[in-house]
Design a protein that fits this description.
Layout: E1 2-4, H1 6-21, E2 27-32, H2 36-45, E3 50-60, E4 63-71, E5 81-85, E6 88-89, H3 93-105, E7 110-118, E8 128-132, E9 137-139, H4 140-143
Parallel strand pairs: 1-9, 2-3, 2-5, 5-7, 6-7, 7-8
Antiparallel strand pairs: 3-4
Helix pairs in contact: 1-2
């Protein structure tokens, strides 16, 4: 298992932001929950004020579900270039369902996807990504923000 620390995140933010800059997004959509920390940081780095989120899940913990669940909606009616952000493309099922769903709702928008990690075997590959994943990754927001006692 790889522990992805805040220091890793800080080191990765600039190169991923530089990759995404060429797209010039006017909207960032975070895939909740895993993509929220990264989406917020990228929106700040890219100076994009229109930051939204949608919940799409294909995992319960470390177990893959049979179906992807998508909950919530984004209002992309004023958007032209939308950057969809998640932490990792593991199987690719979540983004393989979410992106076409958004495209069908907003056909005049151009969509690109950014992630920190991608597995070679995924059925969906993002437009912007930094690392290939070959083991389970535990992100700092999954471990450092857990309530471990009274605050």
């Amino acid at each position: 298992m790889l522990i992805y620390t805040y220091e890793h995140f800080l080191n990765d933010l600039v190169p991923l932001s530089e990759q995404c800059q060429s797209f010039q997004p006017d909207t960032v959509v975070a895939v909740a929950r895993g993509g929220m920390t990264l989406a917020h940081a990228l929106a700040m780095s890219l100076d994009v004020r229109n930051l939204q989120s949608i919940r799409a899940e294909s995992y319960d913990g470390e177990h893959q579900r049979d179906r992807v669940s998508i909950a919530g909606k984004c209002d992309l009616s004023q958007s032209k270039r939308v950057l969809v952000v998640d932490d990792i493309v593991d199987s690719g099922k979540t983004l393989a369902e979410l992106v076409p769903s958004l495209q069908s709702q907003y056909p005049s928008c151009e969509f690109r996807v950014a992630t920190l990690f991608t597995k070679k075997t995924a059925e969906f590959h993002p437009d912007f990504s930094l690392h290939e994943a070959d083991e389970w990754i535990e992100f700092f927001w999954e471990r450092d923000f857990l309530k471990t006692g009274s605050l």
